[in-house]
Fold 4-hydroxy-tetrahydrodipicolinate synthase.
Amino acid sequence: MTLSGVYLPLITPFAENGEIALDALEDLARTALEEGAAGLVALGTTAEVAMLAEEERRAVVEVCAKVCRERSAELIVGAGSSDTRGSAEALRALKAWPEVTGALVTVPSFVRPSEAGVLAHFTALAEQTPVPIVVYNIPYRTGQSVGAATLRRLGELPMVAGVKHAVGGVDQDTVSLLADLPEGFAVLAGDDPFFSALLALGGTGGILASAHLRTGLFVELTEAWRSGEVAHARDLGHRLSAMSASVFAEPNPTVLKGVLHAQGRIPTASVRLPLVPAGQDSVEATLRLL
Ligand SMILES: O=C(O)C1=N[C@H](C(=O)O)C[C@H](O)C1
């Protein structure tokens, strides 16, 4: 699996009756791929996955699989939990969809197992997964930091294709990891405002909720860094970073849903508790930056 380009972690749109608006989901998925996204991510944080019932999760993956099949696009599915045994089971269940090309597996949250435990967790999963794993490193959500040395060891595991790196900035571990990557191990940005910075350092793409908006520009930014159009990449990067920061002014995906609803792309801006809808000010601020 070559992780490169823009991957869209889809929101889960809800209808007035609270059910998933599967047609709107399909439209969002199709539009992103038409605008140049390399693939879709189903059941990410952006999908409010923690608040979806099992049958709803299956319905979401079905829609994404259908669209990816039509377009021969990559499909990465969020799988796993804080428990190694349960995560292995969730990974094995992905065999049900031949369209699934990868699994996004978060560093175990809440348990705070130490970096040795994180390594043992992914070593066990790498032996059992039917598809390549993308490690999701997001310490501000998991409570578990993973340094460059451990990330490199994860990158050497067979069946670990890359990391979605979301550490809330560009820190020393990020710079040192990107300076010396294991063969075939990709770094994808997972913190939207730092997408351009990570590409400049050698990242190959991103999994970016804000790419629901102006997907084509995120794709253009990736191409600009890849082809060495530095001035263009910097300008575009600054512009998109400001827009992304605005999307994340309130908990993800509340602002994003407000904007997509204002654009008429989803039937409601509803989110499920404990999320509450974004304020109108945040939505309008983002609309002004598009
Ligand atoms: O669902 C995802 O994948 C993403 N989640 C991040 C988060 O909500 O913290 C943001 C990122 O853009 C993609």
About this structure: The chain has a mean pLDDT of 97. The longest helix spans residues 54-71. The pocket of LZUJQKHR is lined by residues 9, 41, 44-46, 190, 192, 207-209, 252 (CB under 6 Å).
